[in-house]
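Chain X:
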Amino acid sequence: MPHRYAEIAFTPTVKKAQEQFGSRDAYARMEGAPETRNHRLSGLETEFIAARNSFYMATVSETGWPYIQHRGGPTGFVRVLDDSTIGFADFRGNRQYISLGNLANDDRVSLFFMDYPNKTRLKLFGRAKVVGLDDDATLSLLETPDYRARVERGFLIRVEGFDWNCPQHITERYTLDEVRAMTAPLTARIAELEQQLAQAAGAEQSRVQIIR
């Protein structure tokens, strides 16, 4: 089957732009190559999504304006339910409900999952379905019990296509927890040296007192 992500993204006008700037031949090969992973999530995508604590989601309004929203939560709050479905709980935010309103008119979404430390990006096309609070069975799959935020609804997204992006121009960024993990050995070593210095200072003070 054709590369599903390319099939969606490479519209006639996009292909014209690729032809104009010299990349069309490469992407034509991408479209024609036998591809089995681009519309079914494998273990690689599942692990990558499970390790994320945020993503970006784009929707389109009935007036044609795109809207991008940042979604965040504890690591793993986006769940891969099967090889073609992901879902997440919608935590209360600023209550503008722009994404929610847009989805009432057009269920198509585009998602970016970013791994800044490793300069990796997974982009995904899908169709979103809103899950109400009365759907206990589905919401139970999306809940994060230890996260203290009010859940207003859930979202299920049927994957239509995805692709991995190149690392070019992605700036490395780290969360506070990641920085703490990386500097933990240094922090421990500093504490050890400070303790040794304190012990040495105490021993020197005792020696001086004995001499006196």
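Chain Y:
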Amino acid sequence: MTYTADAVLERRRIRRKLTFWRAVTLLLVAAMILFAALYINGSKSSRNVPHIAKISITGTIYNNEELLKRLKDVAESDMVKGVILDISSPGGTTTGGEVIYDAVRKIADKKPVVSQVGTLAASAGYMIAIASDHVIAHKTSMIGSIGVLFQYPDISALLDKVGVKFETIKSSPLKAEPNFFSPASEEAKAMIDNTVKDTYDWFVGLVKERRPMITADKLPALTNGSVYTGRQALQHKLIDAIGDEETSVAWLETKGIDKELPVIEWKAESSSYNDLLSSAAMKLLLRNMGLSDQTGALFDEQIGQRIFLDGMLSVWHGSNGEKPQ
């Protein structure tokens, strides 16, 4: 009977513990939801006064619907008197760069826009920077990498080694070319080469239009995929000034914008409680695996985004850059 009584007491103790931790978990979830709601509402309410809007464009460039909506809202807001684009990007898809470039130009039709470069503005990142009316960078920022590439894997040798043969029946020789499972034909390479050259010519045309101070004889050397420090980029007229946010505000003042206006960052509106929960869950998983939180950010940037980009790319890889083919 003593053993049974002790077991009953132990079960009750465990049950109380479970109830306690369930209550703590519910309270934490409720607090996170409340925090997210207050954060989002607070961010939006701060935009209801005249201000300079700051939008960060970081990481891999792609067709980001949320960012495009934010840029559209900035363009249409009467409270936004000027715009600072805070750019730090190695580039991404050419289509992503194109649609963001167009969105920035629509803002510039209504109010002055300045780009300030952080770590780098390369490839499609530079494309977006020159959509603004003025480009500022740090002395050691990386600028340029103007060019386009198209990459595809060829795993045919691997398939041969493992004894796998991939059969294809298609309507024409260039349908679904190039593909993973066989070496590209000369015709397929020529087709891709033409698309790369056409997109490259379009990109160079944007540079020529937006940076008219670069003379025609200098343009080919500056659009061959090379990257430059901020100091070099200023010398080559790829940017307009060396500086930071204070420099950006000073330039906006020359366009009639009151320098005393607050600079308010328009952050992404995806900071919902679902995102907070998923982020917390990812961090917990990484810690249980003995990995740091930075590992998750690195995975998202290098694997979760860049490796799965579709279409034509304008992205700086760092190790060998990219050159028009």
